[in-house]
Write a structure and sequence with these properties.
about 325 residues, mainly alpha, 3-stranded mixed beta sheet, 3 strands, about 75% helix, globular
Length: about 325
Amino acid sequence: MLLAEGNRSSEVTFILLGFSEYPDLQVPLFLVFLSIYTVTVLGNLGMIIIIRINPKLHTPMYFFLSHLSFVDFCYSTTVTPKLLENLAVEDRTISFMGCIMQFFLACIFVVAETFMLAVMAYDRFVAICNPLLYTVVMSPKLCVSLVSGPYAWGIVSSMTLTYFLLALSFCGSNIMNNFVCEHSVIVSVSCSDPYISQVLCFVIAIFNEVSSLVIILTTYIFIFVTLMKMPSAGGCHKAFSTCASHLTAITIFHGTVLFLYCVPHSKNSWLMVKVGSVFYTVVIPMLNPLIYSLRNKDVKDTVRKLMNHLTKS
């Protein structure tokens, strides 16, 4: 029976409304999102390359940052090209498998980013609270394990949610009032009972958000206590400056997630959901490399040297 439902669903085509209710804004929005995506690709791939070519940046902190950039690049590339296509052409359809695949990949990368930020908080905790043991504790083996965890849990979470989405049947209205195949949007057009899928999504989302925030808040409580005990104001400022970029990224990411959780999914709130989703899926992947490059002297120095080298050659 499940196989039969899957075969029928695979023939379904969805329509992503996106921002079609604003026809006069299609071209301006296309140009804005294209600019954001260009900056996202250049910024995140540039950050990965800069970290690879500068031996000074071959440290655990930059190792985690390179993976955050990779996740942001993949997440943006999963969502933004389809958004641009829908703004550029009249046909806003997406196949059932195309929609499921977009959700599957986006879910992996968003869960990975959630815990990658928590891993980076732990890295700052060790660096500030146990500086003499930092290189011993943050061994290459541990760093690889800490990075593998978010990817592995992202895959498990995504496969679980995708399996229950595939168990649903779709018929009748397949119009989605969003620009991306999110879980809530997909189940809203299902003609079978999505209760189990919705509960599972809620439990996984709450677990991911609460557990990652507990890790982040706990590590930063210890960090602030350690900073308050530092006798030197200069040392305290230097130590805190290494956390400033990370705190900014955490605040933007989790602030947007919590905002989307708090917005009721009624007909009147769909515009707010779309705006929040744009910030979450399109803008944040662009902001992270800017946040870390603008506030980081080593990254700025490497970029400057690279630009000078390119100019001379």
